[in-house]
Structures are given as structure tokens and as C-alpha cells.
TrEMBL record:
One of its GO terms (cellular component) is plasma membrane. This is UDP-N-acetylglucosamine--N-acetylmuramyl-(pentapeptide) pyrophosphoryl-undecaprenol N-acetylglucosamine transferase. Pathway: Cell wall biogenesis; peptidoglycan biosynthesis. It comes from Candidatus Lloydbacteria bacterium RIFCSPHIGHO2_02_FULL_50_13. Its EC number is 2.4.1.227. Belongs to the glycosyltransferase 28 family. MurG subfamily. It is a peripheral membrane protein. Its main location: membrane. UDP-N-acetyl-alpha-D-glucosamine binds at residues 10-12, 170, 200, 304. The keyword Cell membrane applies. The keyword NAD does not apply. It holds the Pfam family Glyco_tran_28_C. It comes from the Bacteria. Residues 193-362 form the Glycosyl transferase family 28 C-terminal domain.
Length: 375
């Protein structure tokens, strides 16, 4: 049995694929299914080591990106998309997988186009309330449509094919680290912790406003900050300048990227998590932590804003829209949550009510069921 994953471009598209692949392997072993081979089609492997660890073979297929803003690259990427569709059709005709799982994003389009042309079954997953263009296009053909938010149902024609599964989360993130986080991360257990994550690439706007309030934050809190690889050196330099004469400057702990275990430990230690409103919402919910969400203002179809308000309706999060993100408001909202244990408990309960831990397994079982019937 051959199962092809299509997606990529960002961690929000890539990591749920890894979660489903892990679940597929576990379900196949449990049901004594042999020779299940996994493939990943995209324009870039994103994390080649993780693909290898999950026993997924990478198939490079060019893909063009259509940006929502003016760029000359949009014109040239039209031709890249046509070329990618041709390459994908040849590759899939040779491989002829039993099923294709699409996670959305521009990188998934060539493989999904080829699957539709070759009449290969497709299952898709949509993480956002407002589905992306690729998922909306392939939705009419897909055998099953898995959703993280029930509000996304209205965008798809075939309601009988829809399942509200929640978001596939990697096994390592579902497992709470057994280690004591304060000693393991060399944190002061008497000082509350704030964890700041901007997605796998960081978030420049959040970083800029955070550094402006850092002298006040470290007076009261420890801050673990995933800056993103591209922003780390700038943030480190700015923090050194801003905190040079500030007591407790060691309480600010920037890192370019937190590996799964480090992230789990940081979340376990944290009282509050500050984040964008993409796929990180689902990880925060699994951790059962209060959050302050700052939706990306230029997200396509404003989907992060929609995601944030849907999640906040559970009581799990407070929202600051990016246009309103000013240092005084930023600090006052953080401080208000950190100083209110009753509010924290209510937010934790809201997060736990939103969390779904079995999404990857549900999708894996559907993939195996449909693939087993494919001629």
C-alpha cells in the first residue's frame, strides 16, 4: 500500500503530516498491515531528518506560489505551477499511490491536480476556519474532508464527506515530558514563566513589541522566547542593549527554535503562552495553558483572526489584534492575566475543552480504509 502526502511550505502544513504518518505507522502495526509505504511530495523537504525518522520518502515536485500581494514572482510562478503539475502527473502515474492526503498550501496543488487527473482517491485536512484556495478547489473531488474547526464546513459542497477531527498533533507534543521543567531548563521555580512562540518561523512584529516591554517583564517574570531562526541574532543584540543595566536580565531566554522536548518543557513551566493564531492554537490547547493570541494581520482571508476568535469563545485565550499591538497595552494585558489565578484557571479549563488528541489516528484509519478499496 502506497500513501502519498502533499503539502508543505510552512510548519503548519508540514507537522500535521508527520503526525498522521506517525499514526499510520501505529495503526498499521496494530492491524498487522504489512508493506505500507509513505511518500511526501513537495517543493522542499522542510525537515529531511524528520522525514527520515518517520520513514517517509521525499519526492521533489516544483510548485509556484500565488501571493495575495503584488509581486513579479507571481507571474513567473504561474509557469512553475504548470511545470509542477506536469512533473507531478508523471511521478504519480509511475508511483500510482493508493491514496493522496492533502494538507493544503501552494505546495500541495501539483500532486492534488495529478491525483484528480489520474482518479486517485484524495483525503484532505483543513486547519483553519477559512479554508485555503487549494483545499476549496479539491474539496469537491475529495473522498473525505477532515476539519479542525466546524465553522469551515460551509465552504465545502459535500457535507456528508466532512468529519470534524480536530488538528493532527505529533506524538511527542501529546506526551507531557516527565522531567521537572524548572530544574531541567535552569529556571527559577519562584518566578512565573511566559512562553512566546511565533510559529516555526517566529513573528517579527511580536518580537519587536516584546523587546520594547522586556525590561518591565523581567522585573516580574521569566520569558522563554522562540524568536525564529531569521530573527534570533537581531533579538539577541536588541535584548543585550535593552537589558544591559536592568536587574534580572538573565530571566530573558531567547532561542531561535525550540525542539519538541524543549518546547514541551517550556510549555509545562509556563503560566501564559503568547502566540500567533495558526496551528499553534491546537498545541496550546493540548497543553491546557492560558494564551494571548496575536493574529497575523496579513494572513490569507484573515483566517488567523477567525481562528483566534473561535478559540477565544471557549474562554481559553485573550486576543490583541496586530493593529492594536502597542507596548503599553501589550504589557498591561500580559500583567493582568499573570496576576489573576482565577482567570488562569478559567482559561485552562477552556483550553482543555477545545483540545482533541485523536485527530491523527482518525485520519490515519480513514486513509487506510479508503486506500484498501482502491483498485
Amino acid at each position: 500500500m502506497r500513501i502519498l502526502f502533499a503539502g508543505g511550505g510552512t510548519g503548519g502544513h508540514f507537522y500535521p503530516i508527520i503526525a498522521v504518518a506517525e499514526a499510520l505507522t501505529a495503526v498499521a502495526e496494530k492491524e498487522h498491515l504489512e508493506d505500507v509505504k509513505l511518500y511526501y511530495a513537495s517543493d522542499d523537504p522542510y525537515d529531511a531528518d524528520l522525514l527520515a525518522q518517520t520513514h517517509i520518502s521525499f519526492i521533489k515536485i516544483p510548485a509556484g506560489k500565488q501571493r495575495s500581494y503584488f509581486s513579479f514572482r507571481n507571474f513567473f510562478d504561474i509557469f512553475k505551477t504548470f511545470y509542477g503539475c506536469a512533473v507531478a502527473t508523471v511521478r504519480l502515474a509511475v508511483l500510482y499511490p493508493d491514496i493522496v492526503f492533502g494538507k493544503g498550501g501552494y505546495a500541495s496543488f501539483p500532486a492534488l491536480f495529478a491525483a484528480r487527473l489520474l482518479r486517485i482517491p484524495v483525503v484532505i485536512h483543513e486547519s483553519d476556519i477559512v479554508p485555503g484556495r487549494v483545499n476549496r478547489w479539491i474539496g469537491d473531488y475529495a473522498a473525505k474532508i477532515a476539519l479542525s474547526y466546524p465553522e469551515a464546513m460551509k465552504y465545502f459542497k459535500h457535507q456528508d464527506r466532512i468529519a470534524e477531527t480536530g488538528q493532527p498533533i505529533r506524538k511527542a507534543l501529546l506526551e507531557t515530558p516527565g522531567d521537572e521543567p524548572f530544574s531541567t531548563l535552569s529556571l527559577d521555580e519562584n518566578v512565573p514563566v511566559i512562553l512566546v512562540i511565533g510559529g516555526s518561523q517566529g513573528a517579527e512584529k511580536i518580537n519587536e513589541d516584546l523587546i520594547d516591554i522586556m525590561p518591565r517583564l523581567v522585573e516580574h517574570y521569566q520569558v522563554i522566547h522562540q524568536t525564529g531562526e531569521g530573527n534570533f541574532e537581531w533579538m539577541k543584540k536588541r535584548a543585550t542593549e535593552m537589558l544591559a543595566a536592568i536587574p534580572h536580565r538573565e530571566r530573558y531566554r531567547p532561542a531561535p527554535f525550540l525542539e519538541v522536548r524543549e518546547l514541551g518543557l517550556a510549555a509545562k513551566a509556563a503560566t501564559l503562552i503568547i502566540s500567533r493564531a495558526g496551528s499553534s492554537i491546537f498545541e496550546i490547547a493540548i497543553w491546557g495553558k492560558p494564551s494571548l493570541l496575536i493574529p497575523l494581520a496579513i494572513a490569507h482571508d484573515d483566517h488567523q483572526r477567525e481562528n483566534a476568535y473561535s478559540y477565544a469563545r471557549t474562554g481559553a485565550a485573550t486576543i490583541i489584534e496586530e493593529a492594536n499591538l502597542k507596548p503599553e497595552l501589550f504589557f498591561s494585558v500580559i500583567h493582568a492575566i499573570m496576576q489573576n489565578p482565577e482567570k488562569q484557571r478559567a482559561m485552562e479549563a477552556g483550553a482543555r475543552s477545545f483540545a482533541k488528541t485523536d485527530a491523527a489516528e482518525k485520519i490515519a484509519k480513514a486513509l487506510l480504509s479508503i486506500a484498501s478499496k482502491h483498485d
